[in-house]
Amino acid sequence: MALAERPSPAWDVADLVGQQLLAVPNPLAAWNSDTFWVSVWDSDPGQVLVSLWVPRVNADPSIQLRIGFAVTEESPEVQSERILGALRRPHPLNGAVVCAGDREGAEAYGYVWPRSLEEAATQHPQPEHPHD
Questions:
Q1: How far apart are CA 84 and CA 14, in angstroms?
Q2: 48-77 burial string, b = 16+ CB within 10 Å, else e?
Q3: What are the tens digits of pLDDT across the range 22-59?
Q4: Which of 50, 80, 84, 106 minimizes the number of CB atoms within 10 Å of its CB?
Q5: What is the pLDDT of residues 71-130, one digit of tens each?
Q6: Radius of gyration, alpha carbons of the chain
Q7: Residue 103 burial (CB < 10 Å; 0-12/13-18/19+)?
């Protein structure tokens, strides 16, 4: 997916969320997760997408989750706080989808391994441990 053009209200929110997720201490440490990326895609420029590794990126098994948050008329600061509040909730994140990682990790955390990843693995086999 291509990134949406800047400037935009969604990017203002995404930038604030990204900055706050990189703060020390890690706002997601309570459930052993790391931010992978925060973005706005051209296919849905009215949504901030957040991708997280669960548990941390070097864990085995782990999964990469992606969750979208609609951009509203609220100020970017209010929206970023709302998004951070939603991300701090314990697992499972409602509306999150698996977009990478290990099938066993997805199943261990109660997520469904997407058919698109199954098809991609069949067409282009991945290494046994992609995080090494």
A1: 11
A2: bbbbbbbbeeebebbbbbbbbbebeeeebe
A3: 887 777 777 778 888 999 999 999 999 999 888 876 77
A4: 84
A5: 999 999 999 999 988 887 766 577 788 998 888 888 888 888 888 876 655 544 343 333
A6: 15
A7: middle
Question: What is the amino acid identity at position 106?
Answer: A
Burial class (CB in 10 A: 0-12, 13-18, 19+), 110: exposed
Question: Rounded CA gap, 108 and 130, in Å?
Answer: 18
Q: Are strands 47-54 and 63-70 parallel, antiparallel or unpaired?
A: antiparallel
- What does the angle CA 79 – CA 58 – CA 67 come to, to the nearest 5 degrees? 25
Cut 0.85: pTM above it: no
| Cβ atoms of 27 and 84 closer than 8 Å | yes
User: 3-class SS at 106?
Assistant: helix
The total number of residues shown for the chain amounts to 132
Q: Highest mean pLDDT range out of 5-14, 59-68, 112-121?
A: 5-14
